[in-house]
Amino acid sequence: MTVTATVAGSAPPRTRRVASSSLLCLVLCLPALIPLLVILTSLATPETEVWTHLARYVLPDVIVNTAKLLLGVAIVAGVLGTSLAWLIAMCEFPGRRWLDWALLLPLSIPAYVLAFVAIGFLDYSGPLQAWLRAMFGSSAWVPPIRSTGGVIVVLSLALYPYVYLLARSAFLSQGRKVLEVAQTLGYSRGSASWRVALPMAKPWIAAGVALISMETLADFGAVSIFNYNTFTTAIYRAWFGMFSVHAALELSAVLLLFLPSCCRSSNWYGGRSSAPRVTSIAGTGRLRRTACCWRPRPRC
Amino acid sequence: MKVLSFIRSLLVSIAGCGLLSACAPGPTELVVYSARNEEHIQPIFDRYSAQTGQTIRLITDDAGPLIERLAAEGRNSAADLLITVDAGVLWHAAQLGLLQPVDSPVLKANVPENLRDPGNRWFGLSRRARTIVYSTERVQPAELESYESLTDAKWKKRLCLRTSKSVYNQSLVAMLIAQHGEAQTEKIVRGWVANLATPVFANDILLMQAIAAGQCDVGIVNTYYFGRLQRDQPRIPLKLFWADQQTAGTHVNITGAGVTAHAPRAEAARKFLEWLSQPDAQAMVAAIDLEYPVSSAAPADPQVAAWGEFKPSPLNVASAGELQPAAVRLMDRAGYL
Question: Is the ipTM here above 0.85?
Answer without folding.
Answer: no
